[in-house]
Amino acid sequence: MAEVEKGRKPSEESTDDSEEEDSEEEPKLKYERLANGVTEILQKDAASCMTVHDKFLALGTHFGKVFLLDIQGNLTQKFEISPVKINQISLDESGEHMGICSEDGKVQVFGLYTREGFHENFDCPVKVVALHPRFSSSSYKQFVTGGNKLLLYEKNWLNRWKTSILHEGEGTITNVQWRANLIAWANNMGVKIYDISTKQRITNVLRDNVSLRPDMYPCSLCWKDNSTLIIGWGSSIKICVVKERGHTELRDLPSRYVEIVSAFETEFFISGLAPLADQLVTLYFVKENSDHMEEEFRARPCLDIIQPLPEGYEEISSDALTVRNFQENECRDYRLEHSEGESLYYIISPKDIVVAKERDQDDHIDWLLDKKKYEEALMAAEISFKNIKRHEVQKIGMAYINHLVEKGDYDTAARKCQKVLGKNMELWENEVYRFKTIGQLKAISQYLPRGDLRLRPAIYEMILHEFLKSDYEGFATLIREWPGELYNNMTIVQAVTDHLKKDPMNSTLLTTLAELYTYDQRYDRALEIYLRLRHKDVYQLIHKHDLFSSIEDKIVLLVDFDKEKAVDMLLDNEDKISIDRVVEELRDRPELLHIYLHKLFKRDHHKGQRYHERQIGLYAEYDRPNLLPFLRDSIHCPLEKALEICQERNFVEETVFLLSRMGNCRRALQMIMEELEDVDKAIEFAKEQDDAELWEDLISYSIDKPPFITGLLNNIGTHVDPILLIHRIKEGMEIPNLRDSLVKILQDYNLQILLREGCKKILVADSLSLLQKMHRTQMRGVRVDEENICESCHASILPSDMAQNFSVVVFHCRHMFHKECLPSPGMIPGVQFCNICSAKRRGPGSGILEMKK
């Protein structure tokens, strides 16, 4: 393989940092030396030119020989053309015909698979030859040769060759390239393009740097497509596009013209050009005046990929190539040929041929692995696993894991095992034992397979034992996360039990043991441990495994641990643990019993009715704020018992409620006034009872208490005539805020009057509106047709013969009768009623229309 060294632009400073950055940049191309038959040929001879076809290569040498080679460089055919240097070889598109010219003036054009051919000797060296791309077709038997002039050869209808001069007088023709109908050639003055279809020369691109010898720095030509020509000459590059001229611009001008879309100077001498998508591949020779470059580097040919810009370029990559005898070569000794079909680039030098090709995904992965970028390599392999040929995703992954282990990044290495090892049980077990050897079993534990793929139970038990030795919390975590089927449960239970002998109160081990018992369906033992530890999962365990029969004698422990959860659980499962059983268990813990019965009452006021009498004392003792709501909502508690308890404890509000409920409202009102001394509450109580005698008692009690009188004046205006209260106030009594109270009474009175008047106006307006609506409705006409029937005889309301005399009566209720079918008139003379509506008591319907004919 050819040696390649990453290059840099000659104008850049050479620093350690930039060299380090360059070394991290991935090359765009890969290189290999064309060997096999080529090696033997170039040992005895030297390459002078080469032409590339998709199927084979044609190599010309300095000793006048032409060799046909396959793509791998194996010799397939040899032609002895001349004793001197072969200058150029040309192939048509089909690869069936070849044109050769040599330094002694010989030109040969012949078929590789036929006997037809053209042989001519000129008296001067012929530098170039180019066949028409479709030379195999009989209509395109054309080729050009160039020495001191450019000649076009065409075969006429008599099968004879006709010669015409396309150009002369500007020095030696040094290069020619034929694409479709366009021929481009270079001489000492510049580059010309000739349109063979119109037989017109369409452009002349002048040579830029005339100080350079054209024989030492020859012009490089390359067609990118049928209309784009790339010119490299000395240190300049131009990209020319052939375009059609508009009809209005034709006059005496050629039908096509050339536009230079990009032109720029480089810092090197160009030896060859080739397209790569929208970029360029350039083979160049470094300028000799670049003194800051190393001598060895300067003498090597370089292959660059550049991005052309309108007036410059951007370097994408640069590789310096170590070809054989590069120290002896000059710019003119190198050539660049490319195969469009496979994107292969051939760097030809006298003693060596190097093939450059675009790097594929395997090459990309090779580079990443070489740079120890294993993660990126693994990602690239996973994305392109269908396209890679030399690599396997799993092998790259294993290399990545090995690298991480060597680095000491055990956690990342273990995490990658999950993706890399997949379902390969053998690889998994090997990795586990490797991690055990380096003392890192804990790192791999959380990534072990635990789904469809499972390792041998001994693997999981080994890791659990490792955690049990040094990390109880980690051990507990694995027990929670791993399914119980992964390992022998009894073995682990025994191991935990042995450790508990040394530390019997370790809560972590006890909790883990309870979980192991749960996996083993020994729920009673798990329940005992949870209750002893007062563990929050005890309720979940009971629910999940229906252990209600096992907790009947442990109700106090459960409620005492978490009152809310325990009581909710007991109430949700009354069918499994009865209310009587719970009350019996909690009888010695009245504070817990109260919580249970209170929640039961909140859920259903009737379920625990037999315990309502007991609840009165429990509320009074532990939860007085809820006693009054309980007394209000319960219809089963004995009022006498409740009154006794409330009076003993001097619960005034509760006593007032009970007295009012038992009908002793006067005593209740008296307690409010005397013990609570709260006139607002007394007024509210009187409003609730709506009893005139209570109002009288309230007024009598308040008449000698000015603050109470103020409260009454402010509140009783809508229930009792305030005059009754005002008449009973003693003269000279000082009443706080009396004026405001009197003003409020008057305002309340005025408000009542306004409300009555407003209601009256609304009532009158609504009545009038409805009356008008009824009148309009009754005045409307009623449609009578053949579909209507008499409500008495059920015959059609209209006779079949409209010429007959008939009489019809239609009521406002829309019932219709033949006049003769109507019953006799009612009690009121001249007024007729609908007997159907009258029978249904929907109000009378008087006749509104009588139709006669």
TrEMBL record:
PANTHER family: VACUOLAR PROTEIN SORTING VPS41 (PTHR12616), VACUOLAR PROTEIN SORTING-ASSOCIATED PROTEIN 41 HOMOLOG (PTHR12616:SF1)
Residue intervals passing through the bilayer: none
Membrane topology, record value: Peripheral membrane protein
Residue intervals of the RING-type domain: 790-838
Compositional bias (Acidic residues): 13-25
Name recorded for this polypeptide: Vacuolar protein sorting-associated protein 41 homolog
Top-rank taxon: Eukaryota
Chain's role: Plays a role in vesicle-mediated protein trafficking to lysosomal compartments including the endocytic membrane transport pathways.
Family: Belongs to the VPS41 family.
GO molecular function: zinc ion binding
Pfam family, one: TPR_Vps41
CHCR repeats: 567-711
PROSITE patterns linked to this entry: CHCR (PS50236), ZF_RING_2 (PS50089)
Region (Disordered) location: 1-28
Subcellular location(s) per record: Cytoplasm, Cytosol; Early endosome membrane; Endosome membrane; Late endosome membrane
SMART domains, per database record: CLH
Signal sequence coordinates: none
Record's GO cellular component terms: clathrin-coated vesicle; cytosol; early endosome membrane; Golgi apparatus; HOPS complex; late endosome membrane; lysosomal membrane
Main localization category: cytoplasm
Composition-biased stretches (Basic and acidic residues): 1-12
Keyword tags: Autophagy, Cytoplasm, Cytoplasmic vesicle, Endosome, Golgi apparatus, Lysosome, Membrane, Metal-binding, Protein transport, Transport, Zinc, Zinc-finger
